[in-house]
Amino acid sequence: MRTCQINPSILSADFTNLERELSRIHTADAVHVDVMDNHFVPNLTLGLPVVKRLGEVSALPLDVHLMISDVDRWGPGYAEAGAASVSFHAEASAAPIKLARDLRAAGARASMALRPATPIEPYLDMLPELDMVLLMTVEPGFGGQAFLDVVLPKIRRARAAIDGSGLPIALQVDGGVTRETILRAAEAGADVFVAGSSVYGTEDPAEAVVTLRNLAAA
Ligand code: DX5
Ligand code: ZN
């Protein structure tokens, strides 16, 4: 049985009281923070000053997901701000190997994210530079979208490549993860699950996290 982690996304939380919203997911493994710039994706969320403050008040590690252009320039700042892991989009990086090295040098785990239609095969040679691979299971930009089953074969191929490499690389899925879809994602080989609306959309987010983790591990 694989160890499974649940990282709730605060994109679906109440942005006027993030400290309280963090306390509602105390059962989680990390908090997923979606940074959007209204350029790489058609939505705008929060940036470095908020991430810095979240790092200061959060008991959970920060799992920062950068959906921003010019990520080679801005990414390392999030690692310096204390993020435990920083995911950058391969589609937004001109120099992904350098960026991954910069993130690690700044003390974060380096993670590369791929949109649903971006193949993983061109990036397999750089697995040794990475601590995590993030496969989007919706088009990035918004919470509450439906899980794209079309990504399942890529999850399987990524799992096979990671296992074949022998490296301790996590495989994260993000988007549309619910009590129903988490089973398919876990079966395909994911071991870190981002869940926004299916956690914060419930009465008891902490309990929703436990339920999702149990389902993924089953
Ligand atoms: C989407 C974000 C996700 C989002 C997931 O672009 O990267 O992290 O918050 O939300 P749900 O779980 O509602 O699909
Ligand atoms: Zn995300």
Automatic annotation (TrEMBL):
Pathway assigned to this chain's UniProt record: Carbohydrate degradation
Gene: rpe
Function, in words: Catalyzes the reversible epimerization of D-ribulose 5-phosphate to D-xylulose 5-phosphate.
Family (UniProt): Belongs to the ribulose-phosphate 3-epimerase family.
Active site per database record: D34 (proton acceptor), D174 (proton donor)
GO cellular component, one term: cytoplasm
Binding of a divalent metal cation, residues: H32, D34, H65, D174
Annotated binding of substrate, by residue: S9, H65, G141, F142, G143, G144, D174, G175, G176, G196, S197
One GO BP: pentose-phosphate shunt
Phylogenetic placement of the source organism: Bacteria, Bacillati, Actinomycetota, Actinomycetes, Micrococcales
A Pfam family that the UniProt record links to this protein: Ribul_P_3_epim
Signal peptide start-end: none
Protein's name according to its UniProt entry: Ribulose-phosphate 3-epimerase
Gene3D superfamilies per record: Aldolase class I (3.20.20.70)
Cofactor(s) this protein requires: Zn(2+); Co(2+); Fe(2+); a divalent metal cation
Annotated catalysed reactions: D-ribulose 5-phosphate = D-xylulose 5-phosphate
EC top class named in words: isomerase
GO MF terms, alphabetically ordered: D-ribulose-phosphate 3-epimerase activity; metal ion binding
Enzyme Commission numbers on file: 5.1.3.1
Keyword annotations: Carbohydrate metabolism, Cobalt, Isomerase, Manganese, Metal-binding, Zinc
PANTHER family attached to this UniProt entry: RIBULOSE-5-PHOSPHATE-3-EPIMERASE
Native species: Paeniglutamicibacter gangotriensis Lz1y
InterPro entries per the UniProt record, alphabetical: Aldolase_TIM (IPR013785), Ribul_P_3_epim (IPR026019), Ribul_P_3_epim-like (IPR000056), RibuloseP-bd_barrel (IPR011060)
Cofactor: how and how many bound: Binds 1 divalent metal cation per subunit.
